[in-house]
Amino acid sequence: MSLIEDALVNLIKADADLKGVISTRFYPVIMPQNTSFPAMTYLRISGVRQQSHGGASGLAFARFQFDAWAKRYDDARDASEKLRLIIEGYSGTVLGVVINGILMLNERDGYENDTELYRVSTDYLVQHNEAKPT
User: Is the whole model's pTM more than 0.85, yes or no?
Assistant: First the structure.
């Protein structure tokens, strides 16, 4: 069974609209040096596994942060909006991972003085099923 990260990345990279904006510039945690923009990064910022009286239930909640980076604010905003249209409210099965639902929790804008990049940062809560420990 794939991990939730693998499923989300597969779902997001398959979208032609977002790919038209960021191409293949979609990176876990940090961007490589000399990256072209716009680009996106993602990371899991927390995770909780639901327990039942019998132990692990197989239901999990993962919180992910996605950052859209660009030289122009409008480009960062556009990439973030395209991401939202892909994943907000999504439910389905991707790479064998059952995603029960995705909810946007937070959205914020920023500017990084040292890199001169605009950033639109969003947090999403992903409810999904995962393998139970034996």
Answer: yes
